[in-house]
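Z., the sequence and structure:
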Amino acid sequence: MLLKYFYDSNLAQASYMVGCQQSNEAVIIDPARDIAPYVEAAKKEGMKIIGSFETHIHADFVTGSRELASQEGAKMYLSDEGSADWKYENLEHIPHQLVKDGDQIKVGNLTFTVLHTPGHTPESISFTLIDGGIPAEEPMGIFTGDFVFVGDVGRPDLLEKAAKMEGTSAEGAKQMFESLKKFKQLPDYLQLWPGHGAGSACGKALGAVPSSTIGYEKKYNWALQFEDENEFSKELLDGQPEPPTYFAVMKHVNKVGPTLVKELEPVKEVKSLSEIERLVEKGVQVIDTRSATQFSEKYIPGTVNIPLNSSFTNWAGWLVDYKRPLSIITASTDIEGVEKALHSVGIDQLSSCMNAQLIEESEGDFGSYPSIKPMEAKQLFDNNKVNIIDVRNSSEWNEGHIEGAHHILLGTLKEHLDDIPTDKPVLVQCGSGVRSTIGVSVLKSNGFDEVLNLTGGYSQWRNEIEK
């Protein structure tokens, strides 16, 4: 048997290639939209990808099952559990099989058995795996998707918070409690292969270790220590992080089926600053991926800064309007990576890009903004000369904040522009001074003239001012 692990650190998302080395057939568990790594690995191993398994309708990334079906002829194995609201659509001309609890799927000597494990979502399923080539009659492991993680379980509140389906959080928590009862009955020796790692918004305390065992999770996973359903539900729902706004978009895209990447419009090259300026005037979104330092010193007015780092995909999903055309300013060597990152969260309307070097090499009427240290910020604040906007998440705010600051989560800043006082300059602050720079650019692009960034964020403020 062949088992390969793939991990997208930008999304904290795991996928797996499982193959029978006798039949040279393989399937991909929860494939990402960029299928090139799977195709390359299969070719190297002499395998043919014949199928893709999805554990549920994902909310945090666009799946690659339809890409594999189109390019490799791989059959899609999809959940047929849950209500009519959570059934896959537009499958008429795609090789697929809908599966339910107890169904078995054979791939050479391998046997996958479907377990309905609702809680994170109503249609969620897991797959146990038996390697009949050993030969073995008992499963060796389980692919849990977003059901059970290392050290955590899937959150049940996404449908209510992201998709606005009222009442689903409590029902999901109840379903999760019942699903975990079944999970506890599985043998301790089974390996656990989850769909996410630390950093994913699909849970609140995911571990960074890529795999575990059923026995270890029974002993140490906080969610498996409860016997009372009400106590479990309260703890599960309490303290969940704010889900990115794009999660609702992803649910819809994966339900109805994304456009194939090969069918997307090609990205055009913008060769001058004036062209970008005209795009801004026409209402096109323009994202500048340079570092916060570079952007703060010199930027094209109307553009938003989302630095190209491990958080780029997440903040792009939060801040990009999926209904408006998009242009990107980035290094020429990063264009392909940026495009893949955007596609991974369904941002398919990228129409043009410009080499960031044009800004660095040009003179002109560029924008800029200052960053100030905590002591200077305190003096301004004490003299009533600045309004402070804290863009951290709610749990950070609740743990401590600058008294008198206004709390607006960075991802929702665009929706709360009218809530920001304009009687004096605005100081944007986060935990360390990273997210706040994005917030500054959002405000500047929306007509706020006097905006400052707090160097070092609340962490440095606390060390220097509140010590």
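Residues 275 and 306 are 20 Å apart (CA to CA). DSSP finds 16 helices and 24 strands in the chain.

Let me know what you think.
H.
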